[in-house]
């Protein structure tokens, strides 16, 4: 592999030992009546298809586009499935894949959606879908991701202000079309770089709570899986996974000391990035070359930063991604989903990835305390075999978070996460904030531990104890 090829999800240069070149190139992978009338007048619903037929799942589903009213010609693609249980009372959930530039269709068809895709491009039922007890929207965003599209460069997005505004506009249109969900408990979820997207969208929604004429979104909680949210805190913890894990050494004792020093140096660049945009790409590159790269090169494995237990033996290090790509580019499938003409689906939009190159190292933890103050519950969960957005750094930012409940959270006991009588992880939680370490899982917890993931989310959505 060339030393200048890109690491998954992020614009960094790494030096893994034996990773297949083709795989690494794809790693950039992460109302009232008056309100309804006003929303329908402003928001264009284009090409959405509704179906109760058994396509991926037997529940009611809808897919297609919503055109954003504040943009030139921006069309957001979504695929929505009603709950398998009780759609009228179950919560409404939005899923956002990270990247930046990652399509949420990857999660839908490989992680937490109603079906997966086999080698013959047939849909296979997923018994652990998050739609078991929730109505879920998988959304392709920002502009240009997956099946979403625009015809104008003026619609390009570059930061989380853009993300929050766009997601809010999308939800206004969706709820105008589906007013029965307007009063449903609403949750925003996502993983990886969605550690930026999720709090940004939630922060914007809370800020628009009293907006005249808009649908009031009943935001109850957010959940971030293996996310990158508090870069100032998390980046210095990058080196800890080299030896502070139960799976594999990623550095010698001497190399570990060097990695910790490099992580501290990178942390200083991240701090500078918050006020000086020109430093941000340098910080990201430093992180890849001096921290992630050496760890990935140390062992005899083929460098899978999503899961240090595994080789990177498949395309993009994501199981079944080739099946998903072939399925979503099948003309009959695109027609059934209402996809716009002449769109080739890719798991990562490289242009969007580039557009957010400065934003990546920005710190968005400041969005979280206002959410907690507004009574929005926050759950951070992390598979403990992930290198990219490791559990140690995610736990650290929940403990350093400045909010009135900090002492109570830090003093809360760490309790086992029990699923079917087995210890699947551990939990630190108060009424509003929780952190969950998930055992034997990498970057994509729903893929690696589907039953644990579903149980955890069901408990979170219903505001039940996570450690029961």
Your description of this structure?
The chain is 34% helix and 17% strand. By secondary structure, the protein is an alpha/beta fold. It has two domains: 33-230 and 362-460, Alpha/Beta hydrolase fold, catalytic domain (Rossmann fold); 231-314, no CATH class. Strands 1, 2, 3, 4, 7, 8, 9, 10, 11, 12, 13 and 14 form a twelve-stranded mixed β-sheet that branches. Strands 5-6 form a two-stranded antiparallel sheet. A hairpin with a 5-residue loop joins β5 (115-117) and β6. α2 crosses α4 (160-177). The longest helix is centred in the middle third of the chain and has 21 residues, at 253-273. The protein starts with 20 loop residues before the first helix and ends in a 7-residue tail after the last helix.
Q: Could you name the CATH class of the largest domain? A: Alpha Beta
Oligomeric state: single chain
Shape: globular
CATH topology of the largest domain: Rossmann fold
Please, how many helices? 16
Please bin the fraction of helical residues: 25-40%
Q: Any low-confidence stretches, pLDDT <50, length ≥5?
A: 1-44
What is the string of helix and strand elements? HHEEEEHEEEEHEHEHHHHHHHEHHEEEHH
Organism: Saprolegnia parasitica (strain CBS 223.65)
EC number: 3.4.16.-
Keywords: Carboxypeptidase, Glycoprotein, Hydrolase, Membrane, Protease, Signal, Transmembrane, Transmembrane helix
Family: Belongs to the peptidase S10 family.
């Amino acid at each position: 592999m060339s030393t200048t090829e890109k690491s998954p999800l992020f614009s960094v240069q790494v030096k893994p030992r034996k990773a297949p070149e083709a795989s690494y190139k794809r790693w950039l992978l992460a109302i009232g009546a008056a309100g309804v009338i006003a929303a329908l007048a402003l928001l264009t619903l284009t090409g959405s298809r509704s179906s109760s037929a058994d396509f991926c799942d037997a529940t009611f589903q809808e897919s297609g586009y919503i055109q954003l009213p504040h943009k030139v010609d921006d069309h957001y693609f979504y695929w929505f499935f009603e709950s398998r249980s009780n759609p009228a009372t179950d919560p409404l959930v939005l899923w956002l894949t990270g990247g930046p530039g990652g399509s949420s269709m990857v999660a839908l068809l490989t992680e937490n959606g109603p079906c997966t895709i086999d080698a013959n491009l047939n849909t296979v039922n997923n018994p652990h879908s998050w739609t078991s007890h929730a109505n879920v929207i998988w959304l392709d965003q920002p502009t240009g991701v997956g099946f979403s599209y625009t015809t104008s460069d003026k619609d390009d997005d570059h930061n989380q202000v853009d993300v929050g505004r766009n997601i809010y506009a999308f939800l206004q249109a969706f709820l105008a079309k589906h007013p029965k969900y307007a009063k449903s408990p609403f949750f925003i979820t996502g993983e990886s770089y969605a550690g930026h997207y999720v709090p940004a969208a939630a922060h914007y929604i809370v800020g628009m709570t009293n907006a005249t004429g808009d649908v009031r979104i009943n935001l109850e909680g957010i959940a971030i899986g293996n996310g990158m949210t508090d870069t100032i805190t998390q980046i210095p913890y990058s080196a800890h996974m080299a030896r502070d894990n139960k799976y594999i050494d990623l550095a010698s004792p001497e190399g570990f000391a060097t990695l910790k020093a490099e992580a501290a140096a990178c942390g200083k660049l991240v701090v500078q990035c918050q006020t000086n945009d020109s430093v941000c790409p340098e910080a990201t590159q430093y992180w890849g070359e001096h921290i992630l790269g050496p760890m990935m090169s140390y062992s005899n494995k083929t460098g899978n930063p999503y899961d240090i237990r595994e080789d990177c033996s498949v395309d993009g290090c994501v199981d079944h991604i080739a099946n998903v790509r072939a399925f979503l580019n099948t003309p009959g499938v695109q027609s059934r989903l209402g996809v716009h003409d002449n769109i080739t689906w890719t798991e990562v939009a490289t242009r969007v990835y580039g557009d957010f190159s400065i934003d990546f190292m920005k710190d968005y933890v400041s969005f979280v305390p206002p959410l907690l103050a507004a009574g929005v519950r926050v759950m951070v969960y992390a598979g403990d075999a992930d290198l990219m957005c490791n559990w140690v750094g995610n736990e650290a930012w929940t403990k350093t978070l400045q909010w009135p409940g900090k002492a109570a959270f830090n003093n809360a006991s760490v309790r086992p996460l029990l699923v079917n009588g087995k210890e699947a992880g551990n939990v630190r939680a108060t009424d509003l904030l929780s952190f969950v370490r998930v055992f034997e899982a990498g970057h994509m917890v729903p893929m690696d531990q589907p039953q644990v993931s579903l149980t955890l989310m069901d408990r979170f959505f219903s505001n039940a104890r996570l450690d029961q």
